[in-house]
Amino acid sequence: MHWDRLFEDLEGQLASEWESERAALDAESERLRVSRLELRSRLRILCASAAPATIDLPGGMHIRARLHSLGSDWVAAAMIETEEASARRSTRILPLHAVRGLSIDHGLLLASLEDSEASAPVLRERMSLGFVLRDLGRRRVPVRVVSIDGSDFHGTVDRAGADHLDLALHDPGDARTASAVRGFRIIPFAAVTSVQTVGDQMP
Question: Which of 14, 94, 161, 178 makes the best surface tag, with the fewest CB within 10 Å?
């Protein structure tokens, strides 16, 4: 009986040591996985869950929005507006280089650490900022472009190159007609903080 108890104690100790070792290996494996995690993978999960976030932009700008689409070099967010303004859904396209940080619910933050293979990349994620801007220009959708220095430009995208866009400047709400256009501006993508559309006009 004495030996039986001794062996049982030894088995318990060995099982406990194995469990501790397995837990340590799992923790190290998780740390290694997280160390390889990219922001895009986390944004993919946050967009899939329409996560509300406060997004920090250059110049101390902060916007409250729901993340909903991810491109190759941009993320789109639907502004969280007051009930009075809810009839007009406003979307902002944010180049990833302009995103300075995101404040989100702790549960969503932890969820974004999960393996994103469950929500595999979609075709939209191959769309570049230039591709989206060219489509908005083709549709003649009026936009508001906010630059990194805080300047606001209203107009219509005439064309978008590999790293810049041409904007025909006109008053907000006006159609792009020859009489409405007040001038033209070339804007490098690197200088863009956000491109805002009004209404459900995302491609």
Answer: 178
Q: What's the CA gap between 160 and 153, in Å, rounded?
A: 16
Share of the chain above pLDDT 70, in %: 75
Is the pLDDT score of 76 beyond 70?
A: yes
Distance (Å, whole) CA 114 – CA 129: 27
Q: How far, in Å, CA of 30 to CA of 28, rounded?
A: 5
Single-letter amino acid code for the residue at 200:
D
The residues pairing with 26 across neighbouring beta strands, listed in sequence order, are none
Please name the residues in contact with 36: beta carbons below 8 A apart, sequence gap of 6 or more: none
Buried-exposed string 148-170: b where 16+ CB fall within 10 A, e elsewhere: beeeebbbbbeebeeebbbbbbb
142-147 and 192-198: which strand pairing? antiparallel
55 strand-pairing partners? 63, 102
